[in-house]
Amino acid sequence: MLDPDLKRRLIEIVGPEHVLDSNEIQLAYSYDATPGFQSLPDAVVMPGSTEDVQKIVRLCNETKTPIVARGSGTNLSAGTCPLHGGIVLSFQRMNRILELDEENLTVTVQPGVITQTLCDYVEQRGFFYPPDPSSMRISTIGGNIAENSGGLRGLKYGVTRDYVLGLTVVLGNGDIIRTGGKLAKDVAGYDLTRLIVGSEGTLGIVTEAILKLVPPPETKQTLLAVYDRMEKAAETVSEIIAQRIIPATLEFLDQATIEVVEDFAKVGLPTEAAAVLLIEQDGAPEVVDRDIQKIERICRDMGATSVERAASESEADALRTARRTALSACARKRPTTILEDATVPRSKVAEMVGAINDVAKKYGLSICTFGHAGDGNLHPTVLTDARDKDEMARVEQAFEEIFRKAIELGGTITGEHGVGAMKAPYLEWKIGKAGVHAMRAIKQALDPNHILNPGKLFYEPEAVTGEVAK
């Protein structure tokens, strides 16, 4: 329950209509898109400006009240679950596009802007913002920055970090820093912009962002390659890259995923196939045509049973949309869907896919595997039921093996979903004790009272104090 004096002081900052602590509100903000994690906040506070956020953080720092910054709650690593209670800072009110600077190719936004809204806004004005997480229709820019979100276009265009030029950030003591700017070059001191991006709300709260735009591609072509063996599809991915072709999109779906996506989206995917690759290239017409021809030849040489180009933009868009619905499609099959993102070097995709299949058989689990194969970011997705304790124990063992295998192959435990609370036990596997120690030192320096998103990144199971927990 929210302390009455703290509630009064919060109301003085943002007004009574923006401090919400009803049972219904507490429950609605007690979880995100991660199965198995839930904890009630004491209240939800909706700031309207950077100054509001600064005052709220100063108050919470004074009272040692935890703060969890939250966008749309699409997080897949329990990163926005308020495990220690306190307040959830919701950015629904801070959802404005503040400036489009055509001369400097930048757009300045508040953190509550929906990703798709931003993409549509700049495209209507002749610009292009490439980051495109699968949740882009509902995820926010602030959430994308916190997680350094990737997306289908990440292979060619990079991830969110590559498009963040400057930030306005409120630190744990309430100080405001402004990093970067509308600059092509800036090496004045530590790169605090890149430090904040991907820090999962544990080092500061982003209240404004300057984002880089690029010219839109002149044209694009999409093709679907079908395989009777998953290994052939995975090997094709490696061969395309080895031939020095960088597609805009290079996505992989295994048979289990094809079946659930086709049942959901009904776009004509070949459900009998062992795997499909969704490949798209964009750019100048002559370059796109040349690359697509090469890609078609490689796919056939590597054993594709069929390779077809989308006949129209509507057909291509249907294929892209179908891929983006993979998680939703899987979620229709069983009560609990756990989506992970083990990532390996591109050359190891085939081996990693084989290992995931072996793990599924070993533990008797249904695992759909899809993802951004072009950058090695695979999404093994378990269809299960959280009420089945025996199966959930096997799920946990399976993911431990998958993470270990990814690291063994030179990969990582997460390519775009973040560590949050779900993967905190495995962080040391990736970066070692010294790496964790260095990260803790940074956290201590910027948030000495540990009020910003506590319980995330660092494994502290005994510290969970929320009324409802894992």
Labels describing this entry:
single chain; 470 residues; alpha+beta; Uridine Diphospho-n-acetylenolpyruvylglucosamine Reductase, domain 2; Uridine Diphospho-n-acetylenolpyruvylglucosamine Reductase, domain 3; Vanillyl-alcohol Oxidase, Chain A, domain 3; 3 domains; seven-stranded antiparallel sheet; five-stranded antiparallel sheet; 15 helices; globular
Describe, in short, the structure shown.
This protein has 470 residues and is α+β, with helices and mostly antiparallel strands.
Please give a structural write-up.
This protein has helices spanning 4-14, 23-28, 50-63, 115-123, 141-147, 154-157, 192-196, 230-242, 255-265, 285-301, 313-324, 326-331, 349-363, 389-408, 427-446, and strands at residues 19-20, 43-45, 67-70, 87-90, 97-101, 106-109, 164-170, 176-180, 205-212, 219-227, 249-254, 275-283, 306-309, 336-339, 366-372, 377-384. The protein is α+β, with helices and mostly antiparallel strands and 470 residues long. It has a 7-stranded antiparallel beta sheet with strand order 13-10-12-11-15-16-14, with helices on both faces. The chain has a 5-stranded antiparallel beta sheet with strand order 5-6-9-7-8. A hairpin with a 5-residue loop joins strand 7 (164-170) and strand 8 (176-180). The longest helix has 20 residues, at 389-408. The relative contact order is 0.13. Residues 463-467 have low confidence and may be disordered.
